[in-house]
Automatic annotation (TrEMBL), chains A, B, C:
Main location: endoplasmic reticulum
Keyword terms: Acetylation, Endoplasmic reticulum, Membrane, Mitochondrion, Mitochondrion outer membrane, Transferase, Transmembrane, Transmembrane helix
Enzyme class, broadest EC rank: transferase
Protein name: Microsomal glutathione S-transferase 1
EC number: 2.5.1.18
Lineage, opening ranks: Eukaryota, Metazoa, Ecdysozoa, Arthropoda, Hexapoda
Compartment(s): Endoplasmic reticulum membrane; Mitochondrion outer membrane
Amino acid sequence: MSSSLYTTDNPVFSAYLFYCAILVLKVLFMAPLTARQRFSKRIFISPEDTTLTPKAKVKHDDPDIERVRRAHLNDLENIPVFMVAALLYIATNPAYFLAVNLFRIFTIARIIHTFVYAVVVIPQPARALAWGAGYAATIYVAVQVILFSL
Amino acid sequence: MSSSLYTTDNPVFSAYLFYCAILVLKVLFMAPLTARQRFSKRIFISPEDTTLTPKAKVKHDDPDIERVRRAHLNDLENIPVFMVAALLYIATNPAYFLAVNLFRIFTIARIIHTFVYAVVVIPQPARALAWGAGYAATIYVAVQVILFSL
Amino acid sequence: MSSSLYTTDNPVFSAYLFYCAILVLKVLFMAPLTARQRFSKRIFISPEDTTLTPKAKVKHDDPDIERVRRAHLNDLENIPVFMVAALLYIATNPAYFLAVNLFRIFTIARIIHTFVYAVVVIPQPARALAWGAGYAATIYVAVQVILFSL
């Protein structure tokens, strides 16, 4: 019987732990990024949020806030599926070098994506390329899992 | 000590690898589905996206684009939680036949959901039934995990 | 070679199964919470949904429905990343007492978050505190994983 690949004896799993935890913090970081805009503009999402800040109002179309929220939604569209795909990919017992670089590329690409989308707006195709690198890494990993499981 | 169920010696885990990777690709497929609408209508989500396409504009209420985005959001509401629930379900050591068919029903239901919602709009209750099949499968799996862990 | 921590011999993993399955059901519960508002107000999200209910209409800015949807989106922003972070955290072989209480705090915090946001609206900082407890638990878990994997 084969032993589990999901132990820290497996360097691919250890690398996954590291990059995946970085990605968790990266997604969580979208909250203070949104809050910074909301408090500086005093624009909140729900009526009950306006009671603690003077002159606060509810508004759902502020361009700077919606920009951060779109970056956050794009994270939700891309990061959880990568986390799951990469977890499955470990079961295919991939080469360490390849696996680590896929995790690294995805993680860096998603950090760049948020930076060029919602921190300093950089003209396209900056965001498209960052998104595409993460997207391509996820497709590669998912296809490898399917080929392995056939 | 019981050995890990998360190895490819366990046919339920192997089936999970396959269906879960299909679901990852299914969620990723929402991006080209959205892009197809955006480029054909020249309607984009952020101002910087309009510079590469002539006559492009920003608009957030196009019915065809918003339809694809709603299907995508519905995926995010349902697919990651199923992926996690099914991963936990493997630990309950379920019967192979039952587990594989739950994975299969969920996967097919979600593909049909997107098709009837955002590719060819089919009257209700088509979408409600597709959504409900995936929803019921997720509840069943989650409840089995809770009963097992008590 | 170390044996897998992802078996029910590990009480931390068993606790994870329980709390994570509760969280899955908690996220799924947002759907009937939204549907209850939609059917009582006869306000639906897509044109094809209005054919089965008399006097139904499409509207995207009803405050009560959008409130439930914001609570749902906040779940998607916070719960899947916690589920993944906690899964990784198990690999660090944490003390049972600490791990179980982190899972418990997160789960209870998210249930309270939905209650004060979308069931009975309770003035701030109720929602901020519930959100913050879950957020802090996720950061703690993710940072522990990073420190462990260095």
